[in-house]
Design brief:
Layout (H helix, E strand, L loop, with lengths): L6 E8 L5 H6 L3 E7 L2 E7 L3 H7 L4 E8 L24
Antiparallel strand pairs: 1-3, 1-4, 2-3
Protein backbone atom coordinates (compact mmCIF):
# COMPACT_ATOMS: atom_id res chain seq x y z
CA UNK A 1 0.00 0.00 0.00
CA UNK A 2 1.48 3.36 -1.02
CA UNK A 3 1.00 6.43 1.12
CA UNK A 4 0.14 9.70 -0.54
CA UNK A 5 2.57 12.54 0.13
CA UNK A 6 1.11 15.02 2.64
CA UNK A 7 0.32 18.50 1.33
CA UNK A 8 0.84 21.57 3.49
CA UNK A 9 -0.55 25.06 2.95
CA UNK A 10 2.35 27.43 3.73
CA UNK A 11 2.66 31.15 4.38
CA UNK A 12 6.07 32.74 4.80
CA UNK A 13 6.99 36.41 5.31
CA UNK A 14 10.37 37.96 4.64
CA UNK A 15 12.32 41.04 5.78
CA UNK A 16 12.74 42.10 2.14
CA UNK A 17 11.48 40.96 -1.23
CA UNK A 18 10.56 37.27 -1.24
CA UNK A 19 12.37 34.79 -3.51
CA UNK A 20 9.11 33.93 -5.32
CA UNK A 21 10.81 32.64 -8.50
CA UNK A 22 13.07 30.27 -6.55
CA UNK A 23 10.08 29.04 -4.53
CA UNK A 24 8.08 28.43 -7.74
CA UNK A 25 10.92 26.28 -9.12
CA UNK A 26 11.28 24.15 -5.97
CA UNK A 27 10.24 20.52 -6.33
CA UNK A 28 6.85 19.78 -4.74
CA UNK A 29 5.78 23.44 -4.58
CA UNK A 30 2.64 24.69 -6.35
CA UNK A 31 0.07 27.49 -6.29
CA UNK A 32 2.67 30.14 -5.40
CA UNK A 33 1.19 33.56 -4.69
CA UNK A 34 3.32 36.56 -3.70
CA UNK A 35 1.77 39.53 -1.90
CA UNK A 36 4.32 42.14 -0.89
CA UNK A 37 6.78 40.47 1.47
CA UNK A 38 4.60 37.39 1.94
CA UNK A 39 4.42 34.20 -0.13
CA UNK A 40 1.65 31.59 0.09
CA UNK A 41 1.90 28.20 -1.57
CA UNK A 42 1.26 24.48 -1.31
CA UNK A 43 4.10 22.09 -0.50
CA UNK A 44 3.62 18.41 -1.27
CA UNK A 45 5.95 15.90 0.37
CA UNK A 46 9.36 16.94 1.61
CA UNK A 47 9.92 20.53 2.77
CA UNK A 48 13.63 20.35 1.89
CA UNK A 49 13.40 21.82 -1.66
CA UNK A 50 11.12 24.59 -0.35
CA UNK A 51 13.52 25.40 2.50
CA UNK A 52 16.48 25.43 0.12
CA UNK A 53 14.63 28.02 -2.01
CA UNK A 54 14.49 30.29 1.08
CA UNK A 55 18.25 30.14 1.58
CA UNK A 56 19.87 33.58 1.79
CA UNK A 57 16.57 35.37 2.54
CA UNK A 58 15.63 36.43 6.07
CA UNK A 59 12.33 34.87 7.15
CA UNK A 60 10.28 36.70 9.81
CA UNK A 61 7.39 34.22 10.01
CA UNK A 62 6.47 30.83 8.63
CA UNK A 63 3.30 28.80 9.12
CA UNK A 64 2.24 25.49 7.64
CA UNK A 65 -1.03 23.59 8.01
CA UNK A 66 -2.01 20.25 6.50
CA UNK A 67 -4.49 20.31 3.64
CA UNK A 68 -7.28 17.84 4.37
CA UNK A 69 -7.94 15.15 1.76
CA UNK A 70 -10.78 16.26 -0.48
CA UNK A 71 -10.55 19.84 0.78
CA UNK A 72 -11.39 22.55 -1.72
CA UNK A 73 -8.35 24.07 -3.39
CA UNK A 74 -9.52 27.60 -2.64
CA UNK A 75 -7.05 29.16 -0.27
CA UNK A 76 -8.22 30.98 2.87
CA UNK A 77 -6.79 34.40 3.74
CA UNK A 78 -4.33 32.70 6.12
CA UNK A 79 -2.92 29.18 5.73
CA UNK A 80 -4.40 27.98 9.03
CA UNK A 81 -7.75 29.71 8.62
CA UNK A 82 -8.94 33.26 9.17
CA UNK A 83 -6.45 35.49 10.93
CA UNK A 84 -7.58 37.99 13.55
CA UNK A 85 -6.21 41.46 13.22
CA UNK A 86 -5.51 43.86 16.11
CA UNK A 87 -8.82 45.37 17.16
CA UNK A 88 -10.91 42.40 15.92
CA UNK A 89 -13.56 41.25 18.35
CA UNK A 90 -13.79 37.49 18.80
Amino acid sequence: MTREQPTQRVEVSFVGAPPARQIERASGVSDVEADGRTVRCLVCGSFQPFLEALSGHEVVSLSACPVADGAPEAEPAHPCGPRSEPGDIA
